[in-house]
Design a protein that fits this description.
By secondary structure, this protein is mainly β. The chain is built from 2 helices and 28 strands. It comes from Ideonella azotifigens.
Length: 342
């Protein structure tokens, strides 16, 4: 179950340095996830409790990306829907089923389910575009879809289950989107409010929305706790009240995922907005995940730019950049047992 800890931005700022030192005592193994053969870069978006990672491979000459799944760090291509362009996998469940997007033969972007290596077009709510972002163990997929061919700018949060598509609607505005789903089917996302004057984070339970206030929801755990952004900094809705998680000294941060232990990951700009770094928020403390990398890894130029997902084992995935070679790679961090726990 998630731990409920009252934290404030001032506490986070006051304890950032001490927290980084404390968290660095948790040792991690670090591995790069290579692209598919012929690829020049990779990026990670989703992670399951078995350690399978999904994302995409990029190819030379700005060629289209290819949806990719890594199993035991070995990349495998996920086929597209027959179109000439990019495909990307965004989420993966315990069965190894993945969800994301792919181009159709007609050149439209459609939400895609990869099940046992076979791509299925999940369709739309009536428009030409849809994208899936997450999938739970039961195979419930969430994302968003255009609902009118004549109005490509408006879309609604969407749930796909089997052959059915459900429009989750909005908080009165013209658009909404869903980005995460937990084991019981609760959905996290965001919606424009009446008049499109603001965007609010939302949690849908049984299709019924709970307005969490200004912001954007990107992750949810089995307790229904939502994380995301208040529009500027990473935010955790604890008991449906927003908690500002602060930054690594820069002006912007965002939380992307939360596990059932209450560990939250995302990214933050560093001091003077010099760079984007992956972050772990735990027990009210923000830790720059670059602090857990070995000296050799840092000297080789690798910087963890973001953390996209965390699983129940505390494994973390995201995308790293190399400041010496300009390379980009998906990565996986795995906690090592501490000496006391051996």
């Amino acid at each position: 179950m998630s731990r409920h800890l009252a934290v404030t931005a001032s506490l986070l700022l006051a304890t950032a340095l001490a927290g980084a030192q404390a968290q660095a005592q948790q040792r991690y193994s670090f591995s790069l996830l290579a692209p598919l053969a012929g690829g020049v870069q990779s990026g990670a978006n989703g992670l399951n409790d078995l350690g399978q990672v999904v994302g995409s491979t990029g190819f030379a000459d700005d060629g289209p990306a290819q949806a990719t799944r890594w199993k035991q760090a070995t990349p495998a291509a996920l086929p597209g829907l027959g179109g000439p362009g990019a495909s990307v996998a965004q989420g993966v469940n315990l069965r190894g089923w993945a969800a994301g997007k792919s181009l159709t033969v007609q050149g439209d972007t459609h939400a895609t389910l990869w099940k046992n290596g076979v791509a299925t077009d999940l369709g739309t709510l009536g428009g030409r575009t849809s994208i899936a972002y997450a999938i739970n163990t039961k195979g419930v997929v969430v994302g968003f879809s255009n609902f009118s061919p004549s109005d490509p700018n408006n879309s609604h949060a969407t749930v796909w289950q089997g052959s059915s598509k459900t429009d989750l609607g909005t908080l009165g505005g013209s658009y909404s989107g869903a980005y995460a789903v937990n084991t019981s089917g609760q959905v996290a996302g965001q919606s424009a409010v009446t008049g499109n004057v603001a965007v609010h984070a939302v949690r849908w339970t049984g299709g019924v929305p709970t307005d969490l206030g200004p912001g954007y929801g990107y992750g949810i755990n089995d307790a229904g706790e939502v994380v995301g952004s208040n529009g500027q900094t990473a935010t955790w809705w604890q008991n449906d009240s927003p908690v500002d998680l602060g930054t690594l000294g820069g002006s912007l941060s965002l939380a992307t995922d939360i596990n059932n232990a209450g560990q939250i990951v995302g990214y933050s700009l560093t001091l003077a907005n010099a760079a984007s770094h992956a972050v772990l928020w735990q027990d009210g403390v923000a830790t720059d995940l670059n602090s857990v990398l070995s000296l050799a890894t840092r000297q080789a130029g690798w910087v963890l730019a973001n953390a996209a997902a965390i699983n129940e084992n505390g494994w973390i995935t995201g995308t790293a950049f190399n400041t010496l070679t300009a390379a980009q790679s998906a990565y996986l961090l795995k906690p090592k047992p501490t000496p006391a726990s051996r």
